[in-house]
Amino acid sequence: MMSKQVQPVGPVVNSTPASHPGPVTLARRFGTVVRLAAARTAAPLWRVFGGHDEIWTYISGHGPFTGEKTFTAWLEGHETQSDPYYFTVHDLYGRALGFLALMHIRRPMRVIEIGSIVYSSELQRTPLGTEAQYLLARLCFRGAGLSPLRMEMRFAQRFVAARRLAFRLRL
Hints:
Blueprint lengths: L24 E3 L3 E5 L2 H12 L18 H12 L5 E7 L4 E11 L4 E9 L7 H16 L7 E4 L6 H10 L2
Parallel strand pairs: 5-6
Antiparallel strand pairs: 1-2, 2-3, 3-4, 4-5
């Protein structure tokens, strides 16, 4: 009779539910990522989003919006949600250029997703756009008690820009 060989699979997994994300400011080389504050960022975001309906193509259930008023109301509704938990992306001059969220947060299973990503044309294909994704990933794995076992990023197969981003992040 052969003895069963034990195969190592890694360190023991922490079974304590992860913490929920909290308000933080994540700063790096090209800008900052901060918790959504609709009163401060609705108008600046509308200035860079308004008239660019194509940025909403892959965000089901959101936009395009008929005007600043409807956009602001939508943004205010998302400010108080705990899932998705929205952040805005600001350049070095403090201009709000986009947003993204930690979502589908399954604390007992230690799983979190980065999604609901809407970048203005000024933020798309820039080092800051990539850096914002990196900062949230780093927050998940290294800070705030989130420590997920799995971080997810979903995108439509046809969304070439998101696929390129995942490649740049080496996800």
